[in-house]
Amino acid sequence: MIDPALAGRPLDRVRFPLDRSKLAELARALHDPDPVWHDPEAATAAGFARVPLPPTATVLADHWRDGGALAPALAIGADLGRLLHGEAEWEFVAPVGVGDELVADARVAAIEQREGRRGGTMTLATLETEFRNGAGEVVVRRRDTLIETSV
Q: How far apart are the first and last CA of the chain?
């Protein structure tokens, strides 16, 4: 069960590279054949100074965590058998591209409980992650909402 007392607490810090091969794999997984995602010459021809990121590329950070993508859910005590990923949103603050190395700091922004439409109580955990570049500047913010359903 998600502990409401965790609201406001930091979760973890992960450092990870934005490697061209991983971004090409992500673009293929998204069924996006545009060569701009994996070819520097195509990116330059399209007007990019370097190969850009597919919009959801920051999810790659989740695979660098000890415990993998489920680590944040486990850290807040979520019951994985009753857990749903409610939503995700991204805010791109500054350009990020292939070859950058980012540091991701995740924290529990909020935990609230609501009554479900079909009865029972749902616990919503909002996790916020700030991604900083090598100069320490915030370049991306990601917000995920996890939902733990009632028993």
A: 10
Phi-psi category of residue 67: left, alpha or beta, with phi > 0 → left and psi -120 to 50 → alpha = left
Cα 40 to Cα 37, 79, 92, 117: the distances in Å are: 8, 43, 21, 49
Per-residue pLDDT tens for 19-46?
888 778 888 888 888 888 777 888 888 8
Q: Which fold has domain 4-19+53-148?
A: Thiol Ester Dehydrase; Chain A (3.10.129)
The tokens describing 42, both together, are 């195509």
Domain spans in the chain, listed from the N-terminal domain onward = 4-19+53-148
Amino acid at 91: E
CA 17, 30, 92, 109 dihedral sign is negative
What is the rounded CA–CA span in Å between residue 137 and residue 140? Answer: 9
Global pTM reads 0.85
- Name the nearest CA neighbour of 54 among 80, 81, 7, 22: 22
Task: Give all strands (DSSP E) within the chain, no chain letters.
Answer: 10-17, 83-92, 101-115, 121-132, 138-148
For residue 126, which amino acid is it? T
